[in-house]
């Protein structure tokens, strides 16, 4: 199947079951981690979010609320708070990542349905995250799906350049030998799908109502970078795996 067979993007951001015939060409499945492989309702990332603010407050000796303002500006302007801290303040990323990912992953429940769907889904499965490998390994282990993945591409592998900057997408594809036109990328943040679609990947948005996750919230509109939409990734993958 060639790129011309990939849908140009939904006329509206409506979640629909996948048509398995549209995915026969796929050899690689690329998954974001947080709020994608587990439901955002778990609120796990709230712990990371809180610890980022605490790190900034402690590093600069400022009140937490002032630190939060800095945190959100860095995220908006640079794609991740860490990138903003590195660019503007030359922060050492290692202590930052160690601190912010020292969290309790038990709010996530092991997901046997997701494990079964991934097991039946043909092709390689890879994680591409703006977080650390340590964090990804902890989350995958808690979900009970670590054995289903063939590799993790984290923020360190990306030389601390976060999604949606297109440069690390190319590094990722080269490192794992991913042919974009034979790959699917699954993400909860719509703007992170723009470079993937530009490369030729089929994209899947795990819909979220968070301002930073929606296409309009990312300032990119409802463009053709979103090919498929789902509110239930496990159910969506289950249809494909049985297709």
Walk me through what this model shows.
- By secondary structure, the protein is α/β, with parallel strands linked by helices.
- The chain folds into two domains: 174 residues, HAD superfamily/HAD-like (Rossmann fold), CATH 3.40.50.1000; 56 residues, DNA polymerase, domain 1 (Orthogonal Bundle).
- 39% of the residues lie in helices and 10% in strands.
- It contains nine helices and six strands.
- The chain has a six-stranded parallel β-sheet with strand order 3-2-1-4-5-6, with no helix packed on it.
- β2, α6 and β3 form a beta-alpha-beta unit.
- The radius of gyration is 18 Å and the shape is globular.
Largest sheet: 6 strands, parallel
* Overall morphology: globular
Quote the distance from N terminus to C terminus.
16 Å
The share of residues in helices is 25-40%
Looking at CATH, the homologous superfamily of the largest domain is: HAD superfamily/HAD-like
Helix tally equals: 9
Brief description of this entry?
The protein has nine helices and six strands; from the N terminus they run E-H-H-H-H-H-E-H-E-H-E-H-E-E-H. With 243 residues, it is α/β, with parallel strands linked by helices. It folds into two domains: 174 residues, HAD superfamily/HAD-like (Rossmann fold); 56 residues, Orthogonal Bundle (DNA polymerase, domain 1).
């Amino acid at each position: 199947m060639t790129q011309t067979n990939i849908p140009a993007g939904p006329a509206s951001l409506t979640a629909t079951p996948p048509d398995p015939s549209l995915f026969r060409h796929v050899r690689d499945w690329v998954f974001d981690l947080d709020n994608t492989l587990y439901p955002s309702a778990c609120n796990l990332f709230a712990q990371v979010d809180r610890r980022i603010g605490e790190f900034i407050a402690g590093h600069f000796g400022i009140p937490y609320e002032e630190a939060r303002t800095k945190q959100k500006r860095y995220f908006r302007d640079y794609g991740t708070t860490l990138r903003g801290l590195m660019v503007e303040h030359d922060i050492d990323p290692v202590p930052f990542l160690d601190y912010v990912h020292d969290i309790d992953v038990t709010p996530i429940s092991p997901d046997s349905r997701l494990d079964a769907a991934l097991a039946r889904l043909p092709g390689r499965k890879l994680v591409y995250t703006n977080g650390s490998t340590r964090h990804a390994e902890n989350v995958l282990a808690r979900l009970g799906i670590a054995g289903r993945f063939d590799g993790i591409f984290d923020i360190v592998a990306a030389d601390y350049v976060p999604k949606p900057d297109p440069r690390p997408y190319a590094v990722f594809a080269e490192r794992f030998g991913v042919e974009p036109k034979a790959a699917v990328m699954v993400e909860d943040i719509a703007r992170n799908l723009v470079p993937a679609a530009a490369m030729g990947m089929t994209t899947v948005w795990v819909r979220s109502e968070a301002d930073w996750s929606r296409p309009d919230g990312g300032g990119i509109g409802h463009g053709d970078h979103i090919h498929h939409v789902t509110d239930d990734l496990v159910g969506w993958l289950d249809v494909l795996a049985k297709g």
